[in-house]
Design a protein that fits this description.
alpha+beta; 5-stranded antiparallel sheet; two-stranded antiparallel sheet; 4 helices
């Protein structure tokens, strides 16, 4: 079930209006991107602040999905908004402790990108449909059956929570080239 903008604002804004902040997005080859995220035990003020910061960071980047581990917090939280840029009404979604219960046998190919691997896109084959169980920001258990872009995005972000990057789904040769390119860029940036 999607969280409406008004509901999300009502839940998060009173806690974060003065402290909402952009967070740094980790970039490949940062080893923290390979951490397996820990489950969220309690949805408290700290978690709601993190969610608000993740939305601000995701929208600013701009992106359509962000896992908490991508901002250096290895917790099982995903923010997502698949609304088109030109659409005024945002469609923010929060998935706490998301877990894939079922994947279709039918597969589809989408061109994927990642905020942690900027300006690199590659076609990835994934199941066309998934059923996901998660907690909403009020701690209620939800289930969602997704297809198309939503299914792809959920699989991509849940992979992040398990220390898996979308480049792990492409050929080894392409993956090695990408990792080498980003490692060189990180060395240059560190030398400056």
């Amino acid at each position: 079930m999607a969280t409406s903008t008004a509901a999300l604002t009502a839940l998060v804004q009173p806690l974060t209006s003065a402290v909402m902040a952009l967070r740094e997005i980790l970039i490949l080859p940062d080893k923290r991107l390979r951490l397996v995220s820990e489950p969220v035990k309690t949805i408290d003020r700290e978690i709601k602040t993190l969610v608000a910061d993740m939305f601000e960071t995701m929208y600013e980047a701009p992106g359509i999905g962000l896992a908490a581990v991508q901002v250096g917090v290895p917790r099982r939280i995903v923010t997502m908004d698949l609304a088109k840029k030109e659409e005024e009404e945002k469609e923010p979604r929060v998935f706490v402790n998301p877990e894939i219960l079922w994947k279709s046998e039918e597969k589809a190919i989408y061109e994927e990108g990642c905020l942690s691997i900027p300006e690199f896109y590659e076609e990835v084959e994934r199941p066309t449909q998934v059923r996901v169980k998660y907690l909403d920001l009020e701690g209620r258990v939800q289930e969602l059956e997704a297809s198309g872009l939503l299914a792809t995005c959920l699989q991509h972000e849940i992979d992040h929570l398990n220390g898996v990057l979308f480049i792990d789904h492409i050929s080894r040769l392409k993956r090695e080239r990408v990792v080498k390119k980003f490692a060189k860029a990180a060395k240059r940036a560190a030398a400056e």
